[in-house]
Amino acid sequence: MFQFDTSYARLPHPFYTRVSPAQVPKPELITFNSDLARQLGAQDTNQSDTQLAEIFSGQRLLPGSEPIAMAYAGHQFGNFVPQLGDGRALLLGEVVGPAGHRFDIQLKGSGRTPFSRNGDGKAPLGPVLREYIVSEALHHLGMPTTRSLAAVKTGETVRRETPLPGAILTRVASSHIRIGTFEYFAFKQDVDNLKRLTEYSIQRHYPEIQNDPQADLHFFRNVGQTQVELVTGWMALGFIHGVMNTDNMSIAGESIDFGPCAFMDQFRFDQVFSSIDQFGRYNYSNQAQITLWNLSRFGNCLLLLHQDISEDELRKWNQELEALQDLFEHRHTIKMLEKLGIFDYERPNDRELIQKWLRYLEAEHLDYTLSFRALAPLVDQEAGWGAFKKTEAFQEFYNLWQERLHQQDLEVTAIQERMNQVNPVFIPRNHKIEEVIEAGRRGDFSPFHEMNEVLQTPFHEQEGRSSYRAAPRPEEMVQATFCGT
């Protein structure tokens, strides 16, 4: 199926530990993403479900596979932990796709590793189904993200608060190098391996700068720009990652490590879903500040490679971070303007227009996704206010919005079409994911397959699929989501 060529395993031993996947009693395939497999250049994808279950539970290794658990550190809720690492994941290997891009293929839930601390290294079924759904949904929503190749039941019981069925997810990423990977070597003052990691990362992800005399600085800039693009995209979709620790932030700018993540239903600036985020560090609006905080930690690591740096050079690094803050505000504004049907360029009062709209949504407890979709018909002034409540706040927003719409040279129908290309009909609703998980625990995966099918075309109405579109009823609303460890 795949022929692995694992460049990361050719780095020195401190980068990882070799580990074999745990044996499981009865691997059973839930799903296999054959489209993704073909995009990765898989040969001979005609294996039986039994064979696929064996491969993607780690019971049968493919040629060239050298399973490793990667080492990294991280700031968790602001507190530094010097050693974390893959506690329940194994990198099976890397494949080079038809376009020449390199991808990691990793198992999650494949058993204990030296980094498991007190954990069992296993994954319950629920988090596996959640990550599969959310990661694939983000991909079809146009977001950079790790993707899901397969999900397998293991036939064993995983004990958390209650006994749960076990499962393993196969994840695909441009790499699994994190800001926390750099922190791991920086904390140890291991400058040699920090330099190796930096050179490897540049060669793998940003080869166009590897011969640049200021490659490290430009590496910082590139990683920062991809992080900004990623998180502003999350926020435009109403997505909350939930655990933006530095060990959960990929230098490739991909969404990674879906634990207590969720898409908002009713809009709130300070919305939190994670059951462990007691002080709202990673709430919806704070994702901007946390992105920059994480990047400052990344920059500190790279500066260890320049211990004799001059004040002028240090000023350049600080200016790069300040520029990323400006870039974040600008890219967030542009993406939100597009959702409001404004496609020309940012003007002085645009950010206030966006805030008026969001404050209205919050005050009226309106659904974030459906409200943007319902706004498109109102581009035509003859449509009136639609279903929106006729408050003074909405009147003020509406008048400013219409004035702003008319400042661009676009026909009404063109604006509406473009709005519907960036404002989805379907998102992975929290209550629907919970329904999928409950059905899966009973052995019924038909809701899981149907939900994934719906989310493959999120910007188009789909006949007979209205339940996936609808906001939850009060009794269906999910107030908290949980990490699977």
TrEMBL record:
Keyword Lyase applies: no
Record-listed Mg(2+) binding positions: N248, D257
Full protein name: Protein nucleotidyltransferase YdiU
Active site: D247 (proton acceptor)
Entry function: Nucleotidyltransferase involved in the post-translational modification of proteins. It can catalyze the addition of adenosine monophosphate (AMP) or uridine monophosphate (UMP) to a protein, resulting in modifications known as AMPylation and UMPylation.
UniProt cross-references to InterPro entries, sorted A to Z: SelO (IPR003846)
Family of this protein: Belongs to the SELO family.
Listed transmembrane segments: none
